[in-house]
Write a structure and sequence with these properties.
Helices cover 22% and strands 21% of the residues. It has eleven helices and 22 strands. The protein folds into two domains: 252 residues, no CATH class; 131 residues, no CATH class. The protein is an alpha+beta fold and 390 residues long. It is elongated and about 70 Å long. The N terminus is likely disordered. The protein has an eight-stranded mixed sheet, with helices on both faces. The protein has a seven-stranded mixed sheet with strand order 12-13-14-22-15-19-20. The chain has a three-stranded antiparallel sheet with strand order 1-9-10. Strand 12 and strand 13 form a beta hairpin.
């Protein structure tokens, strides 16, 4: 699994200033157009949590307004004084506009809209954007931005990592189509997983293992290793590579309906490239009636019971091939708690020092853990519990 230290640190510090690259947006959007060229046709697209003057989201959708067949493009920004990072200078685009207001620029959000050929050059593109200050700071939860959400058909953005759960709920409760970037581990959030299970939210077209590079504010703290990886990919300077980021969507892209090609259990054990599977075979959990399948490429074709697979399985999940049953949380996703202490035998009261290596904490639909804790455990990583559709 990719190192997620940067994302974790960003969440803890509420450092949400990660700016998506144009190439990543273009690659993802093109996958939906390949499946359905009319995905965005006659639609109103909202880009909240944006910085429209130089945002690559705004640039991409404005430059491709006619190709996509958009009806309306709306992009909103969050006021500088409301952000944690405040090292900001207004752009020339803003300061040279007759609408520029020195008293509003730091405390008000801005809205950019594109609907028509304002400069009458025969095409609708980025040069036709019209803007003004919002009444408030541009927070997506404000009544002002909620009204824009309700007017839109599709919401596309890289929302603040620290507010990802709330942002996704904000879009889906309004029954909107979305295309957003988040942390891969968001799959395990109790606020997100039910949407995945119900097939109301799925992974975007870009695979988990694809490196995504983000620009960061000048002087922002970046892990030297991630900065070096970004530079290797051609992004030198204030950039970072976040290997744990991915796209979430409820727009169809077709790739999620491609079934996995599977071998039998016997074939997997014999030919597997994974040493532990060849040596130990398939193991069953000690506290849940399912078999552990530690690698997506090792899912057997001839097992009809429940299987625990890595969360990266969702990158290959075909809803016509498998059913998602529930989520099992492993020790890597639990904070140090009583789960790591010895427990007394419930009958004799004698401490039981036995260790179990195939243990999961299973959550119900209310987010409560269903488990027995009569012994010390070394849990596996989180697992998606699936079963093959008949």
């Amino acid at each position: 699994m990719a190192n997620n230290s940067n994302l974790g640190a960003a969440k803890a510090a509420k450092n949400d200033e990660f700016y998506t690259q144009y190439a990543d947006i273009q690659k993802e959007v093109n996958a939906y157009l390949e499946y359905n060229p009319d995905t965005f046709r006659d639609k109103t697209v909202l880009l909240p949590c944006d910085d429209p003057e130089w945002s690559n989201f705004t640039r991409f959708f404005a430059q491709n307004f006619e190709r996509l067949g958009l009806k309306r493009l709306i992009s909103t920004s969050y006021a500088v004084e409301s952000k944690r990072y405040k090292n900001y200078e207004p752009t020339l685009f803003e300061t040279e506009s007759p609408l520029f207001d020195i008293d509003k620029t730091r405390v008000k959000g801005k809205i950019f809209e594109l609907t028509r050929d304002t400069n009458q050059n025969g095409r609708i593109d980025i040069d036709d954007l019209e803007w003004h200050y919002l009444e408030g700071d541009g927070d997506f939860r404000s009544a002002e931005v909620c009204a824009l959400r309700d007017q839109s058909d599709i919401i596309v953005t890289n929302p603040p990592f620290s507010l990802f759960r709330e942002f996704v709920a904000w879009t889906l409760k309004a029954n909107k189509r979305i295309l957003v970037i988040g942390n891969m581990n968001a799959l395990t959030y109790k606020e997100i997983f039910p949407y995945i299970k119900a097939n109301k939210l799925w992974m975007g077209a870009t695979g988990f293992m694809t490196d995504m590079v983000f620009a960061v504010p000048k002087g922002a703290e970046v892990d030297p290793k991630d900065k070096a990886k970004a530079a290797k990919l051609g992004y030198v300077g204030d950039y970072t590579r976040l290997g744990n980021s991915c796209w979430f969507s409820n727009l169809e892209h077709g790739r999620r309906h491609e079934p996995l090609r599977l071998m039998t259990m016997k074939e997997n054990v014999r030919y597997s490239k994974h040493k532990d599977l060849k040596e130990k075979g398939y193991q069953h959990y000690d506290n849940y009636d399912a078999m552990d399948v530690p690698y997506t490429d090792s899912i057997p074709s001839d097992y009809d019971g429940q299987m625990g697979v890595p969360i990266t399985f969702l990158d290959k999940y075909c809803p016509e091939q498998f059913e998602i049953v529930t989520l099992g949380i492993g020790e890597a996703f639990l904070k140090p708690t009583k789960f790591y202490k010895y427990f007394a035998d419930p009958i004799t009261g004698v401490p039981n020092k036995e260790k179990r290596d195939y243990h999961l904490w299973i959550r119900d639909d209310e987010g409560r853990y269903l488990t027995d804790l009569g012994y010390r455990v070394n849990g596996v990583f989180s697992r998606i519990i699936i079963r093959k559709k008949q």
